[in-house]
UniProtKB/TrEMBL annotation:
It comes from the Bacteria. This is Riboflavin synthase. One of its GO terms (molecular function) is riboflavin synthase activity. It catalyses: 2 6,7-dimethyl-8-(1-D-ribityl)lumazine + H(+) = 5-amino-6-(D-ribitylamino)uracil + riboflavin. Pfam families: Lum_binding. Residues 1-97, 98-194 form the Lumazine-binding domain. Pathway: Cofactor biosynthesis; riboflavin biosynthesis; riboflavin from 2-hydroxy-3-oxobutyl phosphate and 5-amino-6-(D-ribitylamino)uracil: step 2/2. Catalyzes the dismutation of two molecules of 6,7-dimethyl-8-ribityllumazine, resulting in the formation of riboflavin and 5-amino-6-(D-ribitylamino)uracil.
Length: 201
């Protein structure tokens, strides 16, 4: 479980193609390595991945074919920056919202506009995900906890503060770029219960 509060931007040091549809990533990092152990979970651009090895300045993860197919990781190249967050400690602060690291799909940035000290992003999402969005609801975009400020058709509007723009990979992204989308897990549970009620014994 994560909070959507990015701890640092890491850098893809090495990308090894282990099969046609699976890769192994070595990611340069600093903050997330402070107490990491093999087997721990780290969110990489919003995707929960398991640490398979650790050094003083990097960690390795394996990415399965399904993850490659369903997320933006398939577009990454060596040298690319990624958002990193360790899993939430039981005694830690909860600054964002419940983020599982299980991406629901990808979206495309269709507009990026600056308004005073905010940057607005309009993101086109897959139509089947629109049921999980409400005004002022939560969403994780590339692992960043954000608030929905507008909904129009299959597009959502997000407002980023300067800190988020400068401290996450979203700041360097623009129109046409792909992002990972994780809908609010509470909204998904409510939608499932309302549309597929369980029979009582």
């Amino acid at each position: 479980m994560f909070t959507g509060i990015v701890e640092e931007m890491g850098r893809i040091r090495q990308l090894d193609q282990v099969s046609e549809t699976a890769v192994r990533l070595t990611i340069d990092a600093a903050v997330v390595l402070k107490d990491v152990r093999i087997g721990d979970s780290i969110s990489v651009n919003g995707i929960c991945l398991t640490v398979t090895d650790v050094s003083d300045d990097a960690f390795g993860v394996d990415v399965m074919p399904e993850t490659m197919k369903a997320t933006s990781l398939r577009m990454l190249k060596e040298g690319a920056f990624v958002n990193l967050e360790r899993s939430m400690p039981a005694d830690g602060r909860f600054g964002g919202h419940f983020v599982t690291g299980h991406v629901d799909g990808t979206g495309t940035i269709v507009r990026k506009t600056k308004q005073e000290n905010a940057v607005y992003y309009d993101v086109a999402i897959q139509p089947e995900l629109t049921a999980y969005f409400i005004m002022k609801g939560s969403v994780a975009i590339d692992g960043v906890s954000l608030t929905v400020f507008g909904i129009s058709g299959n597009e959502i509007t997000l407002s980023l503060i300067p800190h988020t723009v400068s401290q996450t990979v979203l700041g360097a992204k623009g129109e046409g770029d792909c992002v990972n989308v994780e809908c609010d897990v509470l909204a998904k549970h409510v939608h499932s219960l309302m549309n597929h009620p369980r029979k009582q014994n």
